[in-house]
């Protein structure tokens, strides 16, 4: 009997251990796939997500999060479902549905979809992260900054920085030297933002070792470990624990800089009508300020970073495509030269914004290389749009890059062709097929500022110089999808006097 008992006990332990192991494995699997269940009842096609990683493997295989939707739309249609890690989303590449999401039913999609909302972060007060009535109040307060009159007041400062850039270009033109044109434009646009928005005459362009530029580049990269967070079953908990890795010294640098700027303005010793002054002087009928100090700091950081990064990317990408398409560049230079010769009474700003072909060139660059490759909105209440059911709380992903490279809307989508933006080609295209700055009430508030700056700088440079492909020019350009599309190896060109 003792022998029998000694044989039974190990078997019981083995069976119990096996059962516990199977239960644990089942729970682990369930946690890894549970968030995908919301997609099953929607009848929306899409690639099958794997436990925890979702479709990250598909995204990587297809070339990155900016390119993948182009391929997936060809396989599953203009609306499909996927999961980035454990986060399910509906990707909308149908321009008519996007019109509903961004304009017609904006109240139901007016907030950005943010996986984590860090209540202790100063940036939670920023216009990008703000929600509902708070966002509306901040947006309406900042809108007067970007009127035509305000933009004209900024043009002298833009031209000052452009003159400095022209001096730098003059030193390298005709030398045969390959120039890091992205770096040059980054320094110039940073100098413009600091001057026009914050009243700081920084002379960034004369200081090649600039801390600001280096830290800004790091912020716009997407850390690999953030993707790993998306796979974890308790991602929000891990985010709170390891938040110091995300809100690192790079972001702290810009927050501290904005605090310093605001502190000087409170001293009343600085009088300059700019972005900070507008925020400080905006008051309610009862005399109270519309924006608190934390809100002003958050908007300042947002504008400092986004205002210089998007413009420098657009300028450097334009230089790149002009160098690779010399016939387009010569046609554009001819338009600029003729406008200057026949309208000597107009300012460069007026001329630049009146040039049709320049507008076509800039738009084609923004199509190929949009400021932001994707954007997300959160569905507040369940709804049905053109037969597509969108549950409450769902991430609705807007794939700007993929919209701009959809072969059904853009024949030969990878070809640089400014003629797409005038005549029948433009008139026959759905307006929401090209939305580089977003659309509707929550579009990019700095769009007019960015376009004004880009066109004025290009007008000045191309009046005298031309961009030329060099042996160091990367073809095709390799882009890294961080917060923006970043050229992995920079953009190197030659510059010649024309």
From TrEMBL:
CDD domains: CYP3A-like. It holds the Pfam family p450. Its cofactor is heme. One of its GO terms (cellular component) is endoplasmic reticulum membrane. It is found in: Endoplasmic reticulum membrane; Microsome membrane. It comes from the Eukaryota. The chain crosses the membrane at residues 12-32, 225-246. Heme binds at residue 444. One of its GO terms (molecular function) is heme binding. Keywords: Endoplasmic reticulum, Heme, Iron, Membrane, Metal-binding, Microsome, Monooxygenase, Oxidoreductase, Transmembrane, Transmembrane helix. It is a peripheral membrane protein. Belongs to the cytochrome P450 family. Cytochromes P450 are a group of heme-thiolate monooxygenases. They oxidize a variety of structurally unrelated compounds, including steroids, fatty acids, and xenobiotics. This is Cytochrome P450. It comes from Nematostella vectensis.
